[in-house]
């Protein structure tokens, strides 16, 4: 199960990364350095950095708010598809009942 980091920890890690960037030749080297100090994987720290650049509009991409909205809409869409399938099945069942000859 993935570890959950507090928002304060993430902000601190990003501040440390910003301070370490000038000291390293590449962004990845700085990410590995700071991640090693904090016990955070380099990919996790890289994603936090990308997200921190996308949310304010510095870098193009899907913001956290947009991502949450898309996720909510996908869930709602799946729920509506299930409801439609249930209604189709019920409709077919009752249509078959109406077509059956009645016995008296």
Commentary on this structure:
The protein has two domains: 1-61, Winged helix-like DNA-binding domain superfamily/Winged helix DNA-binding domain (Arc Repressor Mutant, subunit A, Orthogonal Bundle), CATH 1.10.10.10; 65-104. The longest helix is centred in the C-terminal third of the chain and has 36 residues, at 64-99. The protein is built from four helices and no strands. The N and C termini lie far apart (63 Å). 72% of the residues lie in helices and 0% in strands. Helix 2 packs across helix 3. The relative contact order is 0.06. The chain is rod-shaped, with a radius of gyration of 26 Å. The protein is mainly α and 104 residues long.
Overall body shape? rod-shaped
Largest sheet: none
CATH-level-2 architecture of the largest domain: Orthogonal Bundle
The termini sit apart by: 63 Å
Query: Could you name the CATH homologous superfamily of the largest domain?
Result: Winged helix-like DNA-binding domain superfamily/Winged helix DNA-binding domain
Using the coordinates above, name the CATH class of the largest domain: Mainly Alpha
Stretches with pLDDT under 50, minimum 5 residues: none
Number of domains: 2
Taking all residues together, what is the mean pLDDT?
92
What are the main properties of this structure?
single chain, 104 residues, mainly alpha, Arc Repressor Mutant, subunit A, 2 domains, rod-shaped
Lay out the secondary structure.
Layout (H helix, E strand, L loop, with lengths): L6 H14 L6 H12 L3 H13 L9 H36 L5
Helix pairs in contact: 1-2, 2-3
């Amino acid at each position: 199960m993935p570890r959950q980091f507090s928002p304060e920890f993430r902000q601190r890690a990003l501040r440390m990364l910003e301070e370490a960037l000038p000291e390293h030749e590449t962004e990845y080297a700085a990410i590995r350095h700071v991640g090693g100090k904090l016990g955070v994987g380099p990919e996790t720290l890289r994603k936090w950095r990308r997200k921190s650049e996308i949310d304010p509009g510095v870098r193009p991409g899907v913001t956290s708010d947009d991502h949450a909205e898309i996720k909510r809409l996908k869930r709602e869409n799946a729920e509506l598809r299930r409801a439609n399938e249930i209604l189709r099945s019920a409709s077919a069942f009752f249509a078959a009942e109406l077509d059956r000859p009645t016995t008296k």
